[in-house]
Every structure is written in structure tokens, then in C-alpha cells.
Amino acid sequence: MSDPLSASIDAAVVPVARSRSGRRDGRAAALLIAPNLILFSVFIVVPVVGGLLLSFTTWNITNGWPKWVGLDNYRRMHDDPLVWESVKTTVKFILMGVVPTVFLALGLAMLINFKFRFIGAVRSLYLVPAAMSFAASAVVWRYLYLNGPGFGVINYVISKFGVTPPDWLASTDWSLLALDIITIWLTLPIATVLYLAALQRIPDSTIEAATLDGAGPLQRARHIIWPGVSYMTPLVAIIALLSFTNGSFDLVNILTKGGPLYATQTLIYYIYVNGFGYGLFGYAAALSVLQILLIGGILFSLRLVGRLVNR
Amino acid sequence: MMLPRGLRRALRIFFATGIGLMMAAPLFYIVAGSLMSNEQLSIQPPQVIPDSLHFGNYSDAFSGLTQVIQLRSFMNSIIFTVGVVGLQWMLCVSGGLVVAKMRFRSRNLITALFAISLFIPVITTLIPTFIVVYEFGLINSYPGLILPIAAQTGFGTLLFRQYISQMPEELFDAARIDGANWWRILRTIVLPLARPATAAYVAISVLTAWNMYLWPLVAAEGGSLQVLTQTLAVIGTSGQGQITPQNVIFASVVIVTLPMLIVFLAVQPAFVRGLTGSGVE
């Protein structure tokens, strides 16, 4: 198991033994990594630290220097009902998306983990959504979800079952689920590939031996396949979490603008609205701190990173 | 109860192919729709096979009253993608070599910093990044568009670090004894040997850059620097759809997506290797 993400976290936590030759490359190393670190610092480290400072100020970018206001933005956040609404929406959006993604990906990976002549072509079909952007998907799914005039493909099929189909993107009950479905579709390829890689490390002979011992498909799934791939689950969950966090903005901004009636206003979108809609950069920065705490909280409470390292 | 082996296999092939076709169905649907007449697109039940092929939709997407795709945006997407991936690649290969093979004090700290950066949502640094770019006077310029994204070196550096650290130590020791400096080692040893990692990296980051929406949206507000995802966002937002015919919209989506689909299918094994660090076929 050696995907770059988890291997690098391992490496960062577990120090590497000093080389036997005992040589030191300090100056050469500094020169060689300088361009990388300088850009990384200016556009990643400085914004993270600067964002934290900015959250204690009010600032309209065109208008002088930021003014220090202490905890005002945080007090305001506490009193703003839309904040808690959008936190709830974010958590709902993530739960309704990440959990199905993990299970569906494992199911699909098991389905395509066998050999036949055209398996390469079949697996390519599962990867197709990975080539599409959130923006392009938004256009496609707007038409698939269409409810009138005239049904799109999805609602046409639903109506054939004698059920009145929902007006997906315009309904407070269904719009968040509609965006979740698109994001699941976009995230499944990567998640499936990761599980497939784990499945392929389980030797065929192990499964054959279990079958000979009389283990049925369910027993094999529970006692061999699940233990064999479960180490991959934290990584899949983290990648899905990031996809649902970052990707949600594109879909919300293109398809629903947070509506109807704030039903799809995730915290990320609310940050964008405050910063670039109202020009409240300080308040948006405070909301960004909340967003980082929220993601950190989810990672921490599920002990995802810890499980990735202590495998 | 057991089905005969042959039948089980046939069922499995059937379901694997069927569900795969469903996964890819939205793409097939958009390609089919891009070749239909508008009349066919508007009838019920929704049509999935074009009656006749209207290739004119594609030229309509590029010109005339129905124009969706500006050549300028197409060029901007290419410049943005090539700029980000090219610059970031150089930073990541050299950075990867440094944290994989060179000995210095703060190595673990730097590696940890890159790892942490992977977990910070882009939006949370969006406003401060915007301010930094604004203060440099780079809003609405190619450097302003490209540099902050090229600076996201966390993933690439760690990918190359991972790959380079598996190269035998003796190779580097021998080169050092022969008097090669690290710049030379980078060019003559690391770059040729790290070609598979480069392929994986390019596959993933070209896709990411081409499909990026949020940063270009705020960094190129003016229009002359618009990239294709913004073009799609405009037609994806309701309202505009009534002005542009649906078949032209579909053709535009295909035009924007096709380059990535070709790139993606061509480099798919590298893409998969880059994600999993293994040889899944």
C-alpha cells in the first residue's frame, strides 16, 4: 500500500533514519527547494495565516487598511441564523454524499474485479465521469433533472413508475440530494479505483481456499474481502470528503445559487457570498476559520487521519 | 444453491457492462443530444438516439448568434493549464528530490507542511489569496491566474517524493562521489527515472487545472481572461439556456470535455498509478 497521500503522512509523522554516510546537504537543499517553498509560502501559508488575522478585522479591499475589531466577526457569526443553517446543510450534504460513495465504490470495485477479454474497456466506462468538470456536469445534469416544460430523462423514467417526480433543483426537499447525486457520480471513479487496487492485492488463492472450505459469497465478503480492503476506507473517505467540500461550490454556484430558500447554501457558498457578494472580507475570513474547524472536526471525530497512519 | 459457473460468469459480465454503461450514460446522452435537431430534443419521451446527425451544432457553438465558445476562452484554458502544470511540475520534481533524498534539519517539518496543505479547502484561503494577488497588482493577468494554483505544490511534491525515495541510495552516493552536484543529479538521474511519476502527475494535474472553476472565477472577473469552465457555468445557470438552443449547449459541453476525455483515456493507466501507487490495469 503506497499511495502518495497516506505514505507521505506516514513519512511526515515517522522520522526517516539519518543516512549512514552522515552527509549534510543543507545549502544545496535550500537552493533547490527555494522556488517551491517561496511560492507555497506566498500563496498557501501566508493566506492561511493572513486569513486568521483577517477574521479579526473589517475590511473592504478598496478602502485603506483592515480595521481591527477583535471578536466582532465571531459574535456576529454567533448571532447569524444563516451560519448555523449553512453548517447544518454542509454536514447533511457531506453525510448524504460520502457514506453512499464509500459503499457504492466498494460494490462497484467488487463487481469489476474479475478478468475477461474486454474488462479494460468496461473499467474505462466507470472512469468516464472523472474526465468531466463540475461545471460541465452541472450543465448535463440540469437537463437530466428537467421537470418542465417536458420531463428530462430522469423524471420521465420516474413518471413511468406512476410516481409524480420531484422538481429536483427547484424543490427545498430535493435540491440538496440532487447536488449530492451529481457529486457522488463525479467522485465514484476515484473511489472505485482505490478499492479496486486494494481488492487486487487479495490473492486469488486465499479466496479459492475459503470457497473450498465452504464459505459462501457473504461469508467471503465479510471475512476475507472486507478485512482485506478496510485499510483503504479512510483514504477513500478523505478523498470523498475533500471532493464534497471543494466541489460543492461549483455545483451550488452554477445550479442553485444556494436556493431554493437556502436549501443548498453550504458554508462554502455562504463564505463566497459574504466575501465576493457583499464585500465583507473580514466576516468571510471568520467563516473560513469555521469551515476549517468543521472539516478538521469531521476528520478528527472519525479519526480518519489517525487510522490512515496507524494502519 | 449454485448457478452453473458459465452462467454466473455471463451474469457478471452482463451486470458489470450494464452498470458501467449507466455510469457513462450522461456523457453518451450529451453526445447524442449534441447531434440532434432542437425539435427532437424537445419532444416527449426524451430521445436518446439522433434521427439525423446535425454536425452544424458544433460550428454554431463557435460562431454566429448562437456562439457559446469564444476562441479566446479556449486559448485561456490552454494557457492556464499548460502554465500551471508546467511550472508546478518543475517545482514538484525538484522539491520531491529534496525531501526524498537530501539530508537537512527541517526535512520532516517541510514534508508535514505539504501534507497538511492537502486538507485545507481551497475556499478558505480564497479571500486572502485574492488579496495577495490584488496587492501584487496581478488580478486579471495571466501570472495572477496561474501562480496561486501552481503554488499548490503539496500533492505533486509528495507524489514525486514517494517515487524518488524508492530509487536506490547507491545511485545518488555514486553520483556525489563522481562530483556531480544536485542540479546535475536532478537532470541526469531523477528526471529520466521519474518518467512514470511525471506521467501520473501530468495526468492528474492537467485534469484538475482544465476543470478548475473557482479561482479563475474570482481572478479573471473581467472577461478577457475567462476560461472554459466559466463559459459552461454561464450556460449552465438557468435563464441563459433559453437564449442558446439546447443542442448548441450540448455541443459546447462536448467541445469542452472532449480534450480531457481523450487525454484521460490515453493516460488512464498513469492516472490510476498516480492515485494508487500501484499497477491496477
Structure in words:
Chain A is mainly alpha-helical. Chain A is 69% helix and 1% strand. Chain A starts with a helix and ends with a helix. With 281 residues, chain B is mainly α. Chain B folds into 2 domains: 50 residues, no CATH class; 165 residues, MetI-like (MetI-like fold, Orthogonal Bundle). Chain B is built from 14 helices and no strands. In chain B, helix 1 crosses helix 14, helix 5 crosses helix 8 and helix 11 packs antiparallel against helix 14. The mean pLDDT of chain B is 84. The chains are: A mainly alpha (311), B mainly alpha (281). At the A-B interface, helix 1, helix 2, helix 5, helix 6 and helix 8 of A face helix 1, helix 4, helix 5, helix 6 and helix 7 of B.
Q: Tell me the overall shape of chain B.
A: globular
Structural class of chain A, by secondary structure, is: mainly alpha
The chain-level mean pLDDT of chain B equals 84
Show the largest interface: A-B, 112 and 117 residues
Instruction: Please give the CATH architecture of chain A.
Output: Orthogonal Bundle
Q: What's the helix count of chain B?
A: 14
